[in-house]
Each structure stands twice: as C-alpha cells, then as structure tokens.
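Running log. JK asked me to keep both predictions on one page so they can be read side by side. First protein, sequence followed by its tokens:
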Amino acid sequence: MKHTGIIVATVIVVVGLTAVYYSGVFNNQLHIFNHAPTLTIAYPGNETSLSRLVMVSGTAHDPDGDDQITDIQIKIDSNNWTDAQGTNLWSYDWNTNAGPDGTITISARAYDGNNYSPVQSISVTVANEQVMSSGTHRWAVFVAAANFPPDNKSKLGNGGLYLAENMSDYFITQLGYDTDHVIVLFDDGWIRTDNGYGTKQTTLQQLPHPYKITYGGATRDNVIATLDEVINESNQYSDSEVFLWFFNHGYGNPDARNGGKVLQSSALYLWDSLITDKDLGAILQPLKSHRTTVIVDACYSGGFADRTVASLPTSIFMKSGIPRNGRVIMTGASKFDVGYASTTQGPLFTLLWYQGLQGAADGYRPGPLNLGRPTHLKLFHDGKVSVEEAFYYAKYQLRTNKDFQTYKGMRPQINDRFPNRLLNLGGLILGQSK
C-alpha cells in the first residue's frame, strides 16, 4: 500500500507539471493566433451626398469572443488617423464645412490591443451649398443635452429632442425656414433606449426623418462650429432671421440661497462641458441679424437675458453681452430659480411658449410688472403672434393656471430689444419679411 501511494503521488506531480508546461504553450499559441477585430461603417452610406455636420458611426467586433476593442480610429481623406468615440458602438463628429467640397474617402479601423482590423473605406460627396432653395434668409438651431449625468435621477429623457423636432417641423412648414438651415444638436448624437435612460441604440442621423435637416451631438465643438457657421452665413443678408434654442441642465446649487448665483454668471451644461452666459455672448458678438430670438430654458438661466427676477437687470459686472439691438432674449427661469421639464415632452416654459406661438398668445401683453396678461382690445388681436406675446402667454399660464401652480416659482425672464425697448409695439414675428 505504501508503494502504491508513492506511485499515485508521483503521477499527480507529473500531471501537475505537465499542465503547467502545456498552459504556457497554449498561452503562447493564443497570443500568436489572436484574431484581428472586424469593423463596419453603418453611416453614412457609400456614395452618398453630405453637408454640414455628419456623425460617422458604426460597429466593431472581436471574433475571439471577449469584445476587447480598445480603440477605433478614423481617417478623412489624407488626414491623419484620429480617435473616434466608443468601441463596439462608435461614432465620430465630422464638420464637413471645415474642408473642401467634392469626393471624400472615409476610412476606419478597430484595434484590440494586439491587431488592427482590416481598414474599411467608403466614398462620399461633400456638397455644402450656400444658396437657400426657398429664397428666405432664416436659420434655426435647437440644442439639448439631457442625459449626460451619471445618475438616472438627474436625466431629462428625450422630451427635449421631441420638442425640438416638433418646433423644427413648424418652423419649416409654417414659418418658411429652409430645411438646410435648421439644425438639431442632441446629447452626443446617439438615441438611447428607455427614453434616454438606457444604452446606445442608434445615431440621430440614422433615424428616418420627414425633413432633411442637420443633426449632431450637443458637444461644445459642435455648438460653437454651428453658431459660427450660422453667423457667417446670416451676416451676408440684411433681412436675416436667427432663432436659437437651448434646453439643458442649468448650473447652480439648489441647496444654496438663490442657487449660489448672486455673484456668478448663469451657465448651462452641454454634453461635454459648461457654457456660461458670457461665453455665449462672446460667440454671438459678431452676429449682425436684427431679427434674433434666443431662448435658454434651464435652471438659473436668467443671466443669459441679463436679468435676475421681475425684469431687474444684473449688475454691470455680470452682463452677458447677449442682449443687443434687434434681439429678444428669453429664459425659462430666473437667475435664482430652478426650471422644470417633462422627460417625454420637454421643458415646461418652452412647451407653453410654443403653444402660445401657434396662436394661443394672440393679444397677450406685458401687463403690470411684466407678469403677462391677455387683452380683449381688437388692436392687439391681429391673427399673428410675436415671440414676445408667446412669452407673456407662457408667463401668465405659469402664474394663473392651476395645473402649473407647483412650477410658478420659475419666473421666466425677457430682455426685449426688438426693434428697441421704447418703440416695441408689434414685437418680433417669426417668418415675417420686412
């Protein structure tokens, strides 16, 4: 029996050593025979025509089964390889206005830490036309960054996107805005499952849309590039009309008195950074259009209109530089108050403002202390609704409608300089030529 035990022990030792030895061989073989990843470009399609902002997107896969894609790189024509965002689902923001028109090759490759995938390439045509097909000189930009916080409790859902698309349709069909001059920037350009609370599903540009408008992510680079392009294009025309809408989380401290905004600028979140009221003022400084409407619907946003509460101006040291002659600036809340939004319908102030713009606000006036009031005088009922009338309609509803009593503390603000404060009788009516 003792002899047998020794034999068994010896076998165990031999087998154990053998396993260690072959383990090293297998590891070396796995390293040698690592399969290269695969990659596809899902958007845009080959031989398509593109303009303005384009989100190149696709998928990548590791056939070894662990999906260990470490990097996606993209190359536009002869430029250097540059990193895209994401791995298995990836995307890259490409501003076609930054380069020449014509035939462009887009190439992409994936890397798994050991090998690159075969390069995938498509050919597209960039055609950034400067002439509007409708002959009108109107631009509209809708910006919403709603789902960037890490915790779901703070996310705002896709309601802002749905509202932006509804307003875009109205601007195109009812106000004469050309589809080529309507831009929607939302989150990072991806639609996520569960109304924005889930995982990446598809890009905005891959979804079917009734109109060919420009879609992209609400990143700082995209916002600045878009506004710069709108400014440069609209400045070519003396009758240009510009509409800018921002819906995001406002920056402030809800636990501090007045949101901590007494000696701070108003600010809002884009997808990847903050933008202050002074930042936006500096960006809009070159804009010449005397028919400009800016709406910022966010918490603590009154500083964008150079207002605190009750139309009281901010101090000279805190002015944003956004209000100017020919501009109407509105905010969904005061500088010291939070705003409210539906995750499926969008921000409350803009919902009411848009409702008023479609006809309900005809005849609304500022009233005492700019609180907003309806009037029955036929003089003010002309069948047309100005952006100011829509503002006072929204403010009146928040103050008097029992359905909104919980939210009346928002105290929206306005800085009206169209054509200027003293001579403003009719207000700025969107889509109306001089």
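And the second, directly underneath as requested:
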Amino acid sequence: MRRIFHPFALSLSKGRLSFFKKEGQGFDKLSPNGFWSRAILVLAAFGFAAAPAHADRIKDLGQWQGLRTNQLTGYGVVVGLSGTGDDSLEYTTYAMKGVASRFGLQIPPGIIPANKNAAAVMITADLPAFAKPGQVLDITVSALGKAKSLRGGTLIMAPMYGADGQVYAMAQGNLAVGGLGVSAQDGSNVVINVPTAGRIPNGATVEKSVDAGFATTPTINFNLGEADLTTVQRVAAAINRVMGPGRARAIGATTVAIQAPPGAQARTALMAQLEDLEVDPADAAARVVVNARTGTVVINGAVRIAPAAVSHGKLTVKVDEKPQVSQPAPFSQGQTAVVPNSAISVDEKSSPMFLTGGSSLSDIVKAVNAIGASPADLVAILEALKQAGAMKADLIIL
C-alpha cells in the first residue's frame, strides 16, 4: 500500500501565516504571529522524520532509455482566409506556385498570385514512442509571416520531417483557432488571445515509425528523472529481487542497466512488469527555493537550522522637499524667488536579537514569524544563515 502523509498544514488569511500541527483528528494552532504585507511565504513541510516512508512506482521515477517522443516540423500553406493572410511574403508565393504545380497548373513567370487569402505557416507535432503508420497526431500551426489571423483557414497537405531529415508524417486539415482579431479602416484593432496560431486535432497521419532499438541492444536501461545515488541503488535492488541477483546494476547516479532476453515482445512484457515495482526513494536534499519576482519562499522538510543569533533592523532615510516662494517688499524692485526648504529624517527600527535553530519546521516558522520581515528581508536572512554555516541546505534563487 502506498501512503503519503503530511503531518503539517498551513493557513493563510489576510496576509497572516499560521502553522498547524496535526494532533489526533484535528489541527492545533502553533504560531499565529507574523504578517506579510507584500508577498506570500509558503513553507512546504513534508516531515520526513515524523512521516512513514512512502513507496513510488519505478515508472514514476524516470523513463526507459530510447522510449521518447520525437519532434516533427514542417512548412505549409493555409488557404481560405478572409483577407487576413500574408501580403508580401515571397515564401508564400513560392509555396502557392508549388501547390498549383501539383495539379499541373503552371503560373506564368512574373505573375505573383494575390496572397491575402493564404499564409505561410510552420507546423509542429510530437511523435510518441511506438507510433505506427496510420496513427494520427495533433498538430500546431503557427503563422510565419505577416498574417493577421488564421481563423477559418485550411492547411494544404504538407510533409513533416524529423531531425534526420526523413518524412514521418503528412499534415492537412481545418484549423481551430481560439484567438480573434478585428481591424477597422481608421487603424484601430481588437485582438483576443493569439489569432495567428491554431490546432488541428488528428491533423497529421504517421507515415513512418521510429526504431527505438531497445529490442536489439545488449541491455535495457532505465534513467531516473533526477540523479540520486541512493535511489538508483534501491531501484537496482528492487529489480534484482524479482529477476534474480546480478541482473540489474546501477551505472552512475542515473542509469540502471538490466539484462533482458532479446526480442521486442519479451522485453516489452518485462518492462511492463518492472515499471510497476515500488521503491522507497531517497529523502530529498535540503533546499530553500526563493522566487525573487513573486516573493515566494519554499522550504522543504529536510532543512535544518543550527542554533544561531539573528538581528535584523531597518534604516529608513526620508527627504522632504517643500520649496517656499519669497516675495520682495513693495517698491523694492526685487524679484520673486523660490527658496529651497529640505527636511531630512532618519528612522531606524530597533530589532532585538533572537535565537534560531531546531530540528523541525515548527521552530523555523516560529523564528520567521518573530521577525515580521518582508520577503526581501527574509531572503537576506536566509543568505546570511547560509554563509554563517547555520543552515545546511541549498539556497536556490529563481
């Protein structure tokens, strides 16, 4: 049975952060203090010490080598537009001549067809693993030139190429465009969403499959999504318990090489059996993630802060300019002048020193709420704790 248990909860109401700890069937409030005026402080507590270990399926930890999607791209022409297509793009002109030549129609030299009802586009799609000829794919069509909208257009049959230059699919169909653009004669226009890009559900047909090569390789390899020496060893051990000792071995911190019988059918059945095995992944590394743009701070449950004394204060310097007008005395032949009048005030808020440190996130929350600082100040404190060696965690600033 797979269980994921979070022994902590957060409450954010009107900028006030409260921390709760589960007791019995309810939650007891631990620290109601702390007011955040400019941003939200989020502390994600996973409580590894208090929570029982949970197992993940191998298929959720990574993917099999070679079983991946492949990107396809193509170039084509969308026709049927109501005057919102390209007007001077030579690529569209050449493409229109190419489309006409498929049906035996030769456009005389020097004649440029009107292209306001056509637009040159780029076509993109993802070819999944094990895709076979005859299957259909969803495609995205995007304008390449100065087309104002692709709404109501139809994509003419166009080939889609892989990175090796081979044709893997053919695309054609009517576009579904979610955007809308309307222009008036006086130059005013209204644009909703993006009218120069659209989708064609089932708009491409696979013409050629990609050989993954996993049926003939000496071993089949499983790659973790995130490198971890402990997790990769546990994955190899779980596979060896099913297949027998020595059949799986860890290669580095990411890859597990598995000896498997040759043949696509045998290996597919084996991979389906192995990817449902459950493994207890290693605890996540201690990390503090700070988004400087939004003021969001995330601290995972592995973070520990050693005892340290912190004092954080604010110094505010305010300069008020209140110029005054000086009027000369009557009949003195003087001139009216503006006399500068400046007032400078300094406000330094005293902040008593307090202690931080503890073995749980509740202690960290209490220390954070005790300061009442802004997220920018919190980042400065976390960086100082990191430099002082009191916080054993990776500080990541987005």
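Observation for JK regarding the second prediction: The two ends are 36 Å apart (CA to CA).
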